[in-house]
Amino acid sequence: MTTTTPPRILVGYTATPSGEDALAAAAAFAGSIGARLDVVVVLPMNSRPSIVPNDPGYDALLRETAEGWLADARSRIPDQVPSRERVVYGDSLAGGLLTAAEAGRAALIVVGAARDGLLGRFTVGSVAGSLLHASPIPVMLAPQGSRETAAPLGRVTGMVGTREGADAVLATSARLSAAGTVPLRLVSLLALDLPGVDAAKARVSEHHAAAVLQEARAALPDGVEATASVAPGDSISHAVASLDWLPGEVVVVGSSRLAQQSRLFLGTTAATMLRELPVPMIVVPRAGH
User: pLDDT tens across 69-112, in order?
Assistant: First the structure.
């Protein structure tokens, strides 16, 4: 009898509202898909223990603070979600997270919102921005307020289109839907992706978007069902705002076509969506060739 190793989700933690948002979203998501949490606090590389520390007192204080944060994180994770908490070192916060994710074979990195984001919305901060330019694995962006609103996975929404990367979005969305045994919804914003669209062009674009959705549904694995819709609106922001969102929902989007192979890059459409979304967004990297 063979056993399947549960996927591992890495979350960067700090004892801040942003860190608590990331942890809450990650724990709720992990519990829904049977994943393990790997909670890390990143310390500067020059504070790594050595025979002759630069400043033993300061380094000891950093380590003590990090251990306190990890204890706080541990107390916030539900008992049914397996986890480990540890300190890692890096030249930067993003670099430390990427190194830890690679070493631990994480399937997903989770980070929280920048402090200046509106409640329930995400503003990409420096750490998240660095990850979105360099990560070879998907990154989940938890909107501000997730520590209050995080819930078990309720639905997976995949944003599909004709651009390169749609296959990765579809495959990831279907896999997460199956893992969490939750509904799958496919949404196309294609009809709203052109400036200055008149009524006639809008109708043609909507028909094309509907055809894209039909093709996407047909490409789903056997036994996987999905609803599909074209989001209405005269802009990406309006389209996203017009959609309904369930508690615990996650949105899956593809990396920009500007990204290098097997790396992330947040495109303008996804960045616009991010400002409107009240639920976590998972950005999937382009597949390598």
Answer: 999 999 999 999 999 999 999 888 888 999 999 999 999 999 98
Give the residue ranges of the chain where pLDDT is below 70.
Answer: 1-4, 46-56, 114-126, 161-165, 190-210, 212, 233, 256-271, 286-289
Rounded Cα–Cα distance for residues 98 and 155 (Å): 28
Interatomic CA distance for residues 223 and 149, integer angstroms: 31
Report the DSSP pairing between strands 139-141 and 281-284: antiparallel
Total domains in the fold of the chain = 2
Sheet harboring 184-188: ordered strands across? Answer: 83-90, 36-44, 8-12, 108-111, 139-141, 281-284, 250-254, 156-159, 184-188, 227-230
143 neighbors 177 (Cβ within 8 angstroms): no
Whether residues 212 and 279 fall in one domain: yes
- Residue 214's CB is within 10 A of a number of other CB atoms, namely 12
- Count other Cβ atoms within 10 Å, centred on residue 213: 21
Domain that holds residue 239: 155-284
Does the predicted model carry a pTM greater than 0.90? no
